[in-house]
Amino acid sequence: MSKKSDIYAWGIILYQLVMCREPFKNIPSSLIVAGVMSGKLRPKWPEHLLPELKGLFESCMSLDPEARPSAAELVRALIEIENKARLNAAVAEGV
After folding, report:
1. C-alpha closest to that of 5 among 52, 37, 34, 44
2. Which of 7, 11, 48, 78 is the most exposed, having the fewest neighbouring CB atoms within 10 Å of its CB?
3. Cβ(14)–Cβ(22) below 8 Å
4. What is the pLDDT tens value at each position of the chain, 95 positions in all?
5. What does pTM read for this prediction?
6. How far is C-alpha 44 from the chain's CA centre?
7. Interatomic CA distance for residues 55 and 9, integer angstroms
8. Cα distance between residue 52 and residue 59, in whole Å
């Protein structure tokens, strides 16, 4: 286990929060481990759903752990997403 595996786990939690379901619910745990380790099993993010989070999710799910963001990069990306959402909401309200 490493900090990069924590980022992968955070991506799984993000998926569960957004989708309101477990990504591999009907797959035996032994097959989940093998599938994730081989890179053949990754949750799919729907194209239409929260595109601002899709890229962040996909970077957390990268097969190459070194390509995953650091915790600090993850926090910066989330702050940027929040700021854009607040700005869009303010524009929509005419503020």
Report:
1. 37
2. 48
3. no
4. 789 999 999 999 999 999 999 999 899 999 999 998 888 999 999 988 889 899 999 999 999 999 999 999 999 999 999 999 999 898 988 86
5. 0.84
6. 10
7. 16
8. 12
Provide the pLDDT for residue 75.
96
Query: Residue 7 in contact with residue 71, Cβ under 8 Å?
Result: yes
Q: How far apart are CA 45 and CA 30, in angstroms?
A: 23
Structure confidence at residue 95 (pLDDT) = 65
What tokens does 50 get? 């929260």
Dump the DSSP string for 3-69.
HHHHHHHHHHHHHHHHHSS-TTTTS-HHHHHHHHHHT---PPPPTTS-HHHHHHHHHHT-SSGGGSP
The neighbour count for residue 69, using CB atoms within 10 Å, is 18
Provide CATH code, domain 3-93: 1.10.510.10
